[in-house]
């Protein structure tokens, strides 16, 4: 007889997934403040590039109500969706250390890192920046942002 076998993640893995979600809404509100501080012309060509699918998921879950464009990320399956069809001339980066993209941008405004106000939960000290004046277009650089981990 065939028996269904369920693979149940251990409690630590489940707890870590939920732990990382604390502060998502607050993080997206912080990104929205940055986005809303841009000129309307800049907003039209601004993308939000995240380091991982969790940050991208937070942007995609809470961002539409705040007027944000969808997130783009090179992490796991987000990579396959690409940078989208919009012309992107600047980025708000979330979770990407400065040294990971400083070779691709001429004008980088480093923002204060994000940590949720709730102590001891969620992703902490998440680097954030605004990147303008690309040295290489995002579409050309896209293969370089792919990572699976």
Describe the 3D structure.
By secondary structure, the chain is α/β, with parallel strands linked by helices. 34% of the residues lie in helices and 21% in strands. The protein has helices at 11-21, 24-36, 40-44, 53-62, 78-81, 98-101, 138-141; strands at residues 46-50, 71-73, 90-94, 105-114, 126-134. Strands 2-1-3-5-4 form a five-stranded mixed beta sheet. Helix 4 links the parallel strand 1 (46-50) and strand 2 (71-73). Helix 2 crosses helix 4 (53-62). The longest helix is centred in the first third of the chain and has 13 residues, at 24-36. The N and C termini lie far apart (37 Å).
Give a summary of the structure in a few sentences:
This protein is of the alpha/beta class and 149 residues long. It is 34% helix and 21% strand.
Tags for this model:
149 residues; alpha/beta; five-stranded mixed sheet; 34% helix; globular
Low-confidence stretches: none
What structural category do the secondary elements indicate?
A: alpha/beta
- Radius of gyration based on Cα positions: 17 Å
| Quaternary structure annotation | single chain
Strand order of the largest sheet: 2-1-3-5-4
Mean pLDDT: 86
- How many strands, what sense, and barrel or not for the largest sheet? 5 strands, mixed
Order of helices and strands: HHHEHEHEHEEH
SS strand fraction: 15-25%
Helix content percent band: 25-40%
**N-to-C span:** 37 Å
What's the overall geometry? Answer: globular
- The total count of helices amounts to 7
Number of E-type strands: 5
């Amino acid at each position: 007889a065939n028996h269904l076998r369920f693979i149940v993640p251990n409690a630590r893995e489940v707890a870590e997934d939920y732990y990382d979600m604390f502060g998502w809404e607050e993080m997206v509100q912080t990104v929205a403040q940055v986005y809303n501080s841009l000129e309307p012309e800049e907003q039209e060509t601004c993308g939000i590039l995240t380091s991982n699918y969790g940050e991208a998921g937070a942007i995609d879950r809470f961002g539409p109500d705040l007027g944000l464009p969808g997130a783009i990320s090179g992490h796991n399956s987000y990579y396959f969706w690409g940078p989208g069809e919009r012309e992107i001339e600047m980025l708000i980066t979330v979770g990407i250390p400065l040294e990971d993209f400083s070779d691709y941008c001429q004008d980088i405004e480093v923002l204060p890192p994000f940590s949720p106000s709730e102590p001891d939960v969620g992703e902490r000290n998440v680097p954030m920046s605004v990147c303008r004046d690309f040295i290489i277009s995002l579409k050309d650089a896209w293969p370089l942002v792919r990572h699976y981990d």
